[in-house]
Specification:
Elements: H1 3-22, E1 27-29, H2 36-40, H3 72-82, E2 89-91, H4 96-109, E3 122-127, H5 131-139, E4 143-148, H6 156-165, E5 169-174, H7 188-196, E6 205-209, H8 227-234, E7 240-245, E8 257-260, H9 263-273, H10 282-292, H11 295-323, H12 328-331, E9 332-334, E10 343-347, H13 352-361, E11 364-366, E12 383-386, H14 393-421
Parallel strand pairs: 1-11, 3-4, 3-5, 5-6, 6-7
Antiparallel strand pairs: 2-8, 7-8, 9-10, 10-12
The protein binds pyridoxal-5'-phosphate.
Pyridoxal-5'-phosphate (PLP) is lined by residues 32, 95-97, 130, 175, 180, 209, 211, 245, 247, 252, 257.
């Protein structure tokens, strides 16, 4: 493309952007929140409990204090999702993030090898990853070491090398199935290598956040191997803590979360939690068991979620493919996840922040650029996460069209002469 045609293309895209500026939107696609239609699917949950249901299977009065391991039937249900026995499962309150935080506090401040007594504590952070994991580590003063994701989990050559050399590296945060934000699922080989690897730190842990374990968008279901079983086989049963919750199955603000780990770790965690809380909401655990029943009932409910979510993901694919047909290499790469809640964009280097700013100026809120990197620092400035679940389809459509315009505008302004002039 000659310079002249670049100028006219820039003029056209600037004109389109100017129209958006005159009529700004009010659309938010920043966070992975279920839509109201999705929430409606779980309304019968509120009616599930009968007035005679007060005793759990292990004879706890679910209205009263106590039972920090969770009621037996909830431990069985979550054990099905996690692949754990009752003794390896603890059912808790509505937030798995809070459980992760509690595990970190436990490891930092309790036990004979408490991490807080050491000069430095570091964690591996497969990136792009989940900003709230990084926020937790930052709050604890744990140094974050980014490790690249490969499309089937972290780059294990790098992981194995550095964990074997540095005893200050105490753990890794993983989102093994439909990872946030890249949508990738860890391969069997990656899971086995994580379980078997030699670590210089004797108390190395894997925080295995299986937030999207049943969140399939197509009939092609992906699920990472069971890390606890792999670790047991490798002789490191206390290495993993696995997390799951119903936040995106029933109600994010009023669901149930659970942790799966060796029985030793479950008992240790229950003792730690007893310093924070006397009882989780067992009524809600019981209600969830009555409503969700078992894994196959959960999968049927997730199919209904997928019916509402998949068209949004399909639209994004269609709009990007049409807009950037043949020009993907120059402007943007996008993921096509088979599950989870996100689409991840890799823009041309140095463009992501400006694209997100341009979107904000026309009333469309995206997750801050590069937020998926530890401390929000990504020297390439090329990462944007889209969270399409909450917006209605018509709003999502205009938001993604506007996003394409912003990507084209910012990339042409920065690189137009270089990559188009050469053709
Ligand atoms: C990877 C991941 N983990 C955890 C959560 C939140 O979990 P919870 O609501 O159980 O605290 C989210 C929510 O977006 C998530 O994406």
């Amino acid at each position: 493309m000659e310079s002249e045609s670049l100028t006219s293309r820039l003029e056209q895209v600037r004109e389109r952007y100017a129209v958006y500026e005159q009529r700004p939107f009010a659309i938010n696609i920043a966070r992975g929140i279920p839509s109201s239609k999705q929430l409606k699917l779980s309304e019968p949950l509120l009616e599930a409990l009968e007035l005679t249901d007060w005793l759990s299977e292990d004879e706890q009065d679910i209205r009263n204090y106590g039972g920090l391991l969770g009621i037996k039937e909830a431990r069985i249900l979550f054990g099905e999702l996690l692949g754990t026995s009752v003794d390896e499962t603890l059912a808790a309150g509505n937030s798995s993030l809070q459980l992760m935080y509690s595990v970190l506090v436990m490891l930092m401040y309790t036990g004979k090898n408490k991490w807080s007594q050491e000069d430095e504590v570091k964690f591996l952070c497969p990136s792009p990853g989940y900003d709230r994991h990084w926020a937790m580590l930052e709050r604890m003063g744990i140094e974050m070491i980014p490790v690249e994701l490969t499309g089937e989990g972290p780059d294990m050559e790098v992981v194995e090398k550095i964990v074997s050399q540095d005893p200050a590296i105490k753990g890794i945060f993983c989102i093994p199935t439909y990872s946030n934000p890249t949508g990738e699922t860890y391969s069997d080989e990656v899971v086995e290598r994580l379980a078997q690897m030699h670590t210089a730190a004797e108390d190395f842990v894997i925080l295995w956040d299986n937030a999207y374990v049943v969140h399939h968008l197509t009939e092609q279901h992906e699920e990472a191997l069971n890390i606890l079983e792999a670790c047991k086989e490798a002789g490191f049963p206390n290495r993993p803590f696995m997390f799951v919750s119903t936040s995106k199955i029933t109600f994010p603000g009023a669901g149930v979360s659970a942790v799966g780990a060796s029985e030793t770790n479950i008992l240790r965690l229950a003792e730690e939690l007893s310093k924070q809380i006397i009882s989780f909401d067992k009524l809600n655990q019981k209600r969830h068991v009555l409503f969700l029943k078992d894994k196959s009932t959960i999968l049927s409910l997730m199919e209904k979620h997928a019916e509402l979510l998949s068209p949004k993901f399909e639209w994004i694919q269609a709009i990007f493919s049409a807009y950037f047909a043949g020009e993907r290499e120059n402007f943007v790469q996008w993921t096509d996840p088979k599950g989870g809640y996100f689409v991840h964009l890799t823009t041309a280097n140095g463009c992501a922040t400006e694209i997100v700013d341009k979107m904000k100026q026309i009333g469309i809120q995206l997750t801050p650029a590069n937020a998926a990197y530890p401390n929000g620092v990504n020297p390439l400035d090329n990462s944007i996460r889209l969270a399409p679940s909450y917006a209605e389809l018509d709003k999502l459509e205009v938001a993604v069209e506007a996003l394409c315009t912003c990507i084209e505008l910012v990339t042409l302004e920065k690189y137009g002469e270089n990559f188009i002039g050469g053709e």
